[in-house]
Each structure stands twice: as structure tokens, then as C-alpha cells.
Amino acid sequence: MEGKVHTNGLENFWSLLKRGLHGTYVSVEPFHLFRYLDEQAYRFNNRSKEMNDWERFKLAASQMVGKRLTWNEVTGKQLEPGTCSPN
Question: Which of the 8 DSSP states describes residue 6?
């Protein structure tokens, strides 16, 4: 971490997280909570005044190249060996 670190920064992070969970994301499943935390941490850590929304989007998009998120990973379903679908 660089710069001064104090409890006001942590309180700011939790305030923004709670506002997002109650406002933007109306229904949050506990299974996916870590994903919402990761998204909020990314936003909080990349909130510098030098970056606008477009630059922040380009940075996020450049970091997903070569990565794949499957439906089963999102829903938490595991495939049984030798099957093609989760049903």
C-alpha cells in the first residue's frame, strides 16, 4: 500500500459496498458474495482521478483476455465425470 492508511478509508470502502449491495444489487446470494467484494475492491482500488470510466473499462477488459468463466462456475454446479451437462 502506498500513502497514508487510516480507518476512514476502510469505513469508506464498507459504506460504498453496503450502498452497492442495497441499491445496485438488490438480491445477493451468499454464495456469490466474494464476487461482489472483488468487484467493489477493484472499483475502490482503481478510483484515481486520472482514470475516467472508459479508461477503467479498458483496463478491466484487458485483464480478462485469455480467461474463461463457465456457467457451471458461476452457478456453483459441478459436472459428474463422463457427463456433458449438469442435469
Answer: -
